[in-house]
Automatic annotation (TrEMBL):
<keyword id="KW-0732">Signal</keyword>
<keyword id="KW-0998">Cell outer membrane</keyword>
<keyword id="KW-0472">Membrane</keyword>
<dbReference type="Pfam" id="PF07980">
    <property type="entry name" value="SusD_RagB"/>
</dbReference>
<feature type="domain" description="RagB/SusD">
    <location>
        <begin position="297"/>
        <end position="545"/>
    </location>
</feature>
<protein>
    <submittedName>
        <fullName>RagB/SusD family nutrient uptake outer membrane protein</fullName>
    </submittedName>
</protein>
<dbReference type="InterPro" id="IPR011990">
    <property type="entry name" value="TPR-like_helical_dom_sf"/>
</dbReference>
<dbReference type="InterPro" id="IPR012944">
    <property type="entry name" value="SusD_RagB_dom"/>
</dbReference>
<comment type="similarity">
    <text>Belongs to the SusD family.</text>
</comment>
Amino acid sequence: MKKINIILLVSLWFLAGCNDEFLDTFPKTQINDENFWSNPSDLATYNNQLYAAYFNSEGFGRGGFNGGMLTADNLSDNAYVQIPGDVRLGIHTSNNPGRSDWNWTLVRDINQMLENAEGSPIEEAQKNQYIAEARLLRALDYYDKLKLYGSLPIIDRVLTEDDELLYASQSSRDEVMAFIMSDLDFAEQWMVTSAVPNRFSKTIAQAYKARIMLHEGTFRKYHALGNETTYLEEAAQAAQAVINSGEFMIEVNSDYNALFANINLNGNKEVVFFRDYDEALQIFHNVSNIITHVDGAEFGGTKDLINDYLCTDGLPIGESPLYKGDATISDEFSNRDKRLAGTFAQPNTYFVGDKLFLNTSPQGVVNTASPSGYQVAKFYNESQDVQAWDRAFIDAPLIRYAEILLIYAEAKAELGTITQSDVDMSINQLRTKAGVADLMLNATIIEDIRRERRVELAFEGFRYDDLMRWKQGSKLAQPVLGLKFNENDIADIESFEVGVDILLNEDDYIQSNNTYAFDESKNYYFPIPVNELSLNPNLNQTPGWE
């Protein structure tokens, strides 16, 4: 099947990137015209706007200092951030929630499509493929919200000004998940097998279903909500369906970093779904500047993340005789998982010169820099170095085949049904590409898979959600460390005054001067914006945020 990209109608996508009001103002006087909804092209045209609205903030986001999937890891223990946000510091409040998605515009516009399409004279199979697109988008939007709030109102129709749902309270998580599952199942049933460019296909629907089901199943298991087995089985089955499609494969002999430096992911067998950025169509982002620009690179990797990359013999650094220590970054990266050097720069690699610059250098920074010394190089493309601000256009992989393999392995491990054959066809494919010895099934398989997921998907925006579903928010309260401070790697090291220009711990690792916190009683969810509670007195504030 031809890979799907997301070049939507150019004018719609461009407007979505430039004008927030576009997302709230569909031409409803035209859409509701009696002559509309009468043929498949009408449904396709309307759905283009739904795609644009949902995917506007996906991929690499909308420019500036927002790198979308790249900077989303700044909420997590993967990233050492120079100036962390309130959520990362655990100081967000009901009045300043840090993250919010209590916007029902897209749901409203999807419901409008569904109501009109249901009554359309178009032949059932034809119209159902477009209904499937809309329902998959609704499922995605709903689950994004459910992860934040834990319960939601179910809005399944276009609301009139006197509709009782305007003042509805939240339905339970079980009821909301039944609603989402209904949309996912319909999408999987009716989505076309081979889609035209720019649209969902059955395989993509199954991939998104696998992602949602894994998150829900593990969240329920570790938060003791019950019924996790149902969702984990659905996750394994959906991932298995993508695998069985035969459309994708891990290119074990290809370079890890090259996948993320790709200007055109169309036809790449390691990518299930991606957002297409295009210079000719003026569809841009700002990732190249966020990685390499002095003012943009305000984050780097953490020592905790670096330590999770195995040695080539498949052993952790604390157990492997191949580990050379971390006196220098060259030693630290030697004999390690190739994904380490494919994600972070060393001196004289990628865009870095002889030394690594720190943002806090008293001499000033004229080259790119990071606060931790672990300079992120994932998504770096040399040809994009010359691009002006907000003019980068490498493609963003939204769903990689590697993620599907990880979902399959994790779901099977959580169910207690994983076999060595399962490990070989999933985790060990990724390890082969990374130059790491095979994983053998053992008692720590779940932890092994979690480590594999962390290093494979680092700086793709998954880590915060992973910690939330595993109920490991306490990891966000730990001190944040960077590189060992050493003259071999750090530029202008003689000019730093320890304790003034830089903070080091007792072992000479760079340490953030921020105090991190995570409140187990409430920080797994976010507060509903207080103005929404005023508008609808039947809403209940998220537990812990009252």
